[in-house]
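Okay, can you check this protein?
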Amino acid sequence: MKTSLDHLEKLIAFPSVSRDSNLDLIAYVQNFLGGLQVESTLVHNEDGRKANLWATIGPKDVPGIVLSGHTDVVPVEGQAWSTDPFKLVKHNGNYFGRGTADMKGFIACCLRAAEMAATRKLHTPINLAFSYDEEIGCVGVRRLLDLLKDAPVKPRLCIVGEPTLMQAVTAHKGKLGFRVTAHGLEAHSSLAPIGVNAIYMASDLIGAIRTIQKDIAENGVRDGDYEVAYTTLHVGKMQGGEVMNIVPNRCTFDFEIRYLPEDDQHAIVTRIKAAAEKIAEGYRGVFDKARFDFMDLQSYPAMNTPVDSEAVKFVHALTGGNSTGKITFGTEGGLFQQALGTPAVVCGPGNIAVAHKPDEHVSEAQMAQCDRMLERLVEKLSA
């Protein structure tokens, strides 16, 4: 029987950065499952270079337990790694490599558990859901969920194996991302007042966003279980102008809203768009076509599973723990809740604090703890 560390060594060797194909990794998983007589379904992206994998171990007409993980990793360029990021290296009880914590460690444990489960007669199935392009906005899993929406049986529970140090996490914020384009009127810089500076327009709106953020922080919904207790607004990129002596007629910036599950994110968007219209109106005395356009970018819904729910009790029975937490980063858990009505809990090996950094690693102890959780799952579903 292969260990989870055997699988992890293979998985890390696939440089499945989001911009590149994950098909070699998916082929490894599919071939391994095929050797266990477990069929799997692939759901490809539009150009066929990437794929999600869905597999069921056990009866297909019974709501199952989904083990969900993403196969993509973030880039390593510009990072000062001490070892080859795509070769698993052990040092002082830790295993180093890109994706060890986020989140190939969990997938490796799932494959070990799959081999155990394939030898048992399960009364409740285990579903494996391995997706692509999670790191750029939970892109791939949406295609998989579109397929599952039409299935006659929906999953009973989804366990997302993001790194939580094996603590059961019941909630995370949602995210909305936008690209805003300010449209002004070009002019020679010596005649700047007869033009409309799109950079000024964008700056005015960014100022309004900061004012709205201040109001939310002081008067909005709060949840002290989060490291940042309120909904946050953030501008992360801005681009405008060509040369200094031209009044720019176009400027873009990207911003996001990371909102609490209890907050009304659409009302916040409405406030921002109303501010944009008011700002544009102030420039129309010079240029009647001054305006802002909004384009949707990355988004995913918040996740919020009641701490006293059967889903959380089920995961606690597997981990042996009784604590819960909330995380600042997003997962596909909210998408499973939104698309299928399936409750989700995030629980996996590793620490998010080392993810996306050079010398990312997962401890041997964390891998062993995840193995034990999934062993209990197999036992529970076959008892």
Observations:
- The radius of gyration is 24 Å.
